[in-house]
Design goal:
single chain; 496 residues; alpha+beta; five-stranded antiparallel sheet; two-stranded parallel ribbon; binds adenosine monophosphate; binds magnesium ion
């Protein structure tokens, strides 16, 4: 490891300084032959980083953690987590590092983080490495989510390390993803802090972590009493809104373990995620989710479960009396259902072409049954989740009946459409909130297959289309189509 000269880049070490119990000093392993494959120039500009410099040998070495600006203090972060319901007391960054924080051009604090940077004290049996296809996948899908308007971690770059990594009897090209997030704090960070504190290894850690998180992510809630309750409710509402945005897009996260639920409310961890083709609440894509715990339709309930674990971790800060703390936590957790319903309906209105109630739109009591009605029709006909909503916009515009043509029960559809059309839906609002393009599973796989064989062009083309997901792009018709039948059932894999 050497230091390099990049006058623009200063990395702070706020996390390591304020929460040393959660930060182990660590260095990335040397990449034998780093080669930059993807660089997110708009994001680099937002971070105040010079793209030409990032493309230079020193820049690429920064992007794999092998050449750091002076004063940088990379750490592996400790966290715990409930994985598929079972508790792991010590997960942590087993193949990742926080290089440090920087201020973007808007003055916002952002983490610069690496995934695939080698073993750490948290690696357990793992090799600390990442292989190319999943890192490209995270780059593609996280940037698509951002373009869709969903809060998400961002992808700055993918660098091939030049090392081959053994996986399931073969050797695959290794890669490092440089990721940017408003922070990497998660519910699992609080579970870990609570456990450390209980063993007297970390005096006041949970309280420090709470203040750190409030200040960084929910400053509007800072100052409320007790602070842990203010934080809990801010995270509850941010996650309610996030899951509502996933549900509308047909996004299936696939691994909603408590270590993958952020305190910021950003989507994190794109391992086994997928998008619905057919609308189906039971849709599961992850190879290891055999019980359907993280099925599409379960996501709101599972988020409620994860937030209950968050509340549990915060109990000592909610009230001095343990019974009172449980009462406070339970009452606050009950607010999740309402928060989710409000977020869901608020995001639903424009998708149906309807304005908020206080801007002349219909009451929630009108909108909610309307949504249930159309979703029931979609489920029954297993219609294409993304295409159907765009077809509804066409109908709102008086351009034929493409949505009606997809359903099975025409009488039910007509009754529904009469009620909906009577509300005078605005097709422009619908087109601005119902995407034409999402990272459809078959397109992602096709792009990754080509990239693994050395051709990045299909991935770059798909990425370009996904940067403007709400605009019909001439020549991009095939990116709006559902998977061909020959694609079959889609299966995804965690962090391979
Ligand atoms: P994830 O499935 O990415 O949320 O990771 C769950 C846990 O497994 C985290 O603690 C990761 O750091 C760890 N992990 C995943 N892959 C590896 C690997 N190749 N080497 C070491 N640790 C890993
Ligand atoms: Mg994770």
């Amino acid at each position: 490891m050497t230091t390099s000269t990049t006058p623009a880049l200063r990395l702070d070490a706020r996390f390591a300084r304020e929460l040393p119990e959660l930060a182990l000093d660590w260095q990335a392993e040397e990449a034998p032959e780093p080669r930059l494959l993807l660089l997110n120039e708009p994001l680099a500009a937002e971070l105040g980083l010079d793209a030409d410099w990032l493309r230079s040998p020193d820049g690429v070495r920064l992007l794999v953690g092998n050449a750091l600006p002076e004063g940088a203090h990379p750490v592996a972060q400790g966290y715990a987590g409930h994985q598929f319901g079972g508790y792991s007391p010590r997960l942590g960054d087993g193949r990742a590092l926080l290089l440090g924080e920087l201020r973007d051009v808007h003055g916002r604090e952002r983490d610069l983080h690496l995934k695939g940077s080698g073993r750490t004290p948290f690696s357990r049996g793992g090799d600390g490495r990442a292989v190319l296809a999943p890192m490209l996948r995270e780059y593609l899908v996280s940037e698509a989510m951002h373009a869709l308007g969903v809060r998400s971690t961002r992808a700055l770059a993918v660098v091939a390390t030049g090392r081959s990594v053994p996986r399931e009897g073969t050797a695959l090209p290794g890669a490092v993803l440089a990721r940017v997030a408003s922070s990497h704090l998660r519910v699992g960070s609080f579970q870990y802090a609570r456990a450390l504190e209980a063993t007297d290894q970390a005096d006041g850690l949970l309280e420090r972590l709470t203040h750190h998180a409030l200040e960084r992510h929910h400053p509007h809630a800072a100052g409320a009493e007790p602070p842990a309750l203010a934080l809990f409710e801010a995270v509850r509402d941010a996650q309610a809104d996030l899951v509502a945005s996933w549900m509308h897009l047909g996004f299936v996260h696939g691994v909603m373990n408590t270590d993958n639920v952020t305190i910021s409310g950003e989507t994190i961890d794109y391992g086994p995620c997928a998008f619905l083709d057919a609308h189906d609440p039971a849709a599961v894509f992850s190879s290891i989710d055999t019980g359907g715990r993280y099925a599409y339709g379960n996501q709101p309930a599972v988020m409620g479960w994860d937030l209950a674990r968050f509340a549990e971790a915060l109990l000592p800060l909610l009230a001095d009396d343990p019974d009172e703390a449980v009462r406070v936590a339970t009452a606050s957790l009950e607010g999740f259902a309402e928060s989710y319903a409000a977020a869901y309906t608020a995001r639903l209105r424009p998708r149906l072409g309807l304005r908020p109630a206080d801007q002349g739109g219909p009451a929630d009591e009108v909108v909610e049954p309307l949504a249930e009605g159309v979703l029931a029709l979609q489920r029954e006909a297993r219609v294409d989740h993304t295409g159907f909503w765009r077809d509804l916009a066409e109908e709102a515009d008086g351009r034929g009946t493409p949505a009606r043509d997809r359903v099975l029960d025409l009488a039910a559809y007509d009754a529904w459409a009469t009620r909906w059309q009577a509300l005078d839906p605005d097709p422009a609002l619908m087109r601005a909130t119902n995407p034409v393009y999402v990272p459809r599973n078959h397109l992602v796989e096709e792009a990754l297959e080509a990239a693994t064989a050395g051709d990045l062009a299909p991935l770059e083309r798909l990425h370009a289309v996904l940067q403007r997901p709400y605009d019909v792009q001439p020549g991009a018709e095939r990116y709006a189509e559902p998977a061909p039948d020959s694609f079959g059932d889609y299966t995804t894999f965690c962090g391979t």
